[in-house]
Amino acid sequence: MSVEGEIVVHAAYVVIVLGLPGTMFWRRLTGGSGWLTVDIFLGACCGVALECLLYPLGRWLGMPLLPLVMPLVAVILTAIPGHRPPRGRLLPWWSIAGVAAAVGVVVLWFVRAGSQFITLEGPAANRPNSDTPYQLALAAELTHHFPPQVPYVAGESLSYHWMVYNHIASAHWITRAELDVLVSRTVPLELTILAVLGIAATAVVLSGKVVAAPLAALLSVLAADFSPWSWSANDGQFTDGPLAFTQMISTTQALAAALVLPLIALTALMFRRRPTAGDWVVALVLISVLSVSKASMLPLYGAGLAVAFLYLLLRHRRLSLPTLGLAVLVAACYGANYVLVLGSQSHGVIWAPAETFRSMLKRLLPTTFESGSLALLVLFSAWLVAAWLLPSLGSLLISRERPDDPMPALLGGAVLSGVAVTSLVWQYSMSQLFFIRGTFGFGVLLAAWGLASLRAQHLAMAVPAATVGVGAVLLGRSVVEGEPWRCADNSCVETAFAAPPLVITAAIAAGVLILGLILLMVLRKLPARAWAALMVASALGATFSTAPAAIAAGGRPVVGKYESIAPGGIEAARYIRANGGSQDVIATNVHCQRPVKPPCVSMSFWVAGYSERRVLVEGWAYTARSSGRTDRQEALAGEFWDPELLRANDVVFTGPSIANLEYLRKRYGVRWLLLDERVNPAPGALDELADLRFRAGTVRVYELRIAPTPNTNPDLPN
Fold this sequence. Notes:
The protein has helices spanning 3-30, 36-60, 69-79, 93-112, 132-144, 163-175, 179-207, 212-222, 245-249, 251-272, 277-291, 297-316, 321-341, 355-362, 374-389, 407-424, 433-438, 440-452, 456-478, 490-523, 528-541, 547-553, 569-579, 606-611, 624-627, 632-637, 643-654, 658-668, 684-689; strands at residues 350-351, 425-426, 585-588, 614-615, 670-676, 690-696, 699-704. By secondary structure, it is mainly α. Keywords: Membrane, Transmembrane, Transmembrane helix.
């Protein structure tokens, strides 16, 4: 089946298996939001959460198709009198059209750019980015096993947030799509669309205004990601929105970004009315799934809850029991995740104030520049923090129907906590940036809620003001040509960093002033709220996304500098998948991302990924033992912790014998050997002691034989 055909099949699966039962679950238990369209959008996200909880049970019982009972249960419950969900209103056509336009931008970006980043076929597929084979290996593990282990170090406990791989594995069993297509194509597209729909629905719940739906949806794909420098617009460390390369290689983040939205909407409903037992059930499902989806997302929501609780207590002298109950659920689920899933490990995260800014700045500077410049570090850090906070300016425009509504405090608290954590901790692979990426949806909701609170006349004024912001950021990006790391002196570097933000600020100030004076001349009166709308809208315009430029230019494959996957390796791994059982174990001589040149960066995961089988020892990065090292070199290129096991594995590829082959077979259950001739040539004895089953490129696949039982009776012939 073509990729296009698999996308169509996947869409049908999302609607029937996830969307319909998820909507029934949401509406039946929460009573709905009052808008049917909103409930459908939020229900689709809930359907994914339900599947993520149901699939592991089915996998453990040997019934991986268990999630197919979800639509059946939904139909039965809907047919039973008294179990039909409440009625709801439809959003007006123009509101739905605005949301559809945002979804169209996502699809167009995916076709033109997102689907081009990761190559699935041809020679370029052997040069993937470092994350995609890892994602594929974990998806393969959850496809065939539960509880999961590290698939590339058989027997090692998996200490990673693996919830999204339940979704991918379930989709694989139901749609029969290839895992690499799901990991790199259909699931990122699906989760991005669900996030856009979810953010539109949540904005309506928060504001009570249907205009919030298209505003939030369009902001999520066209704005809210401030990149003042031309070179930062396409840099993964500076892009936090969903239409970016980072979204395509981090399905964990994509799932968390989609599932936190119905939780935010449910929280708003629980604050504004008496919570029901159904509300608590839905909250428990969403919080438990989020706790194992991405380690950075649930703490942001929890911090927002804390700020909301303090807001109600200190400002309104009210003790919020729903806030306390939700906080208990968050603490219990995240605590269980930290102990049972993450193994109580820090995974290399350390307390290091401002190290995030130093690390981001250092990689952008020429080697001759004095990176210790405090002034440049302060300037760079200030602009980054401003960029992260900019979408939250929308909170200045929010008008609440209830003065004691704590939701603005919750959203703002989540954003501020994300900025604080990112600024104060550091991890060798910069994973602390996922805290700031997690704030993206919270910031968009604040911006959309603020704009939706404007009167129609003031909202109309916001359109030209946003255009001013777009023009300002495009002007700012154009004032400096070239990148700072190509500069020959300090003055060039300082100009490259300082000039674009300063030009953008001056252009926005001048544009708002001119626009305000024009409106004042026409209308004869411009109240303070109208001036605030102009300033906030122009600032939001400055967060104009690079997605339109990416759509116009098209995407290019993001490939490595060398073939980390051996020529013929994908075909060889798939031969094992087609001719072996899911419990088979592979031994390989491939351990390094670049097998022909030291140092050995132990980030080889492709054998486990494409074979969908556990490997005795392939790479060993991204495990609890290696990630616990705070030094990047030690974490990614350090020694394997079990040298005896590694020697027993490697000796069969250099000096094979019946004894050492039998040791692997009997002790570790090894059935297959995958040898890459780039690491070492195949010893002649191996052809005599094992059966060569497949050969392609530089890869050979051997199947171990069952050694004959030694004859202990001398009177009988051997």
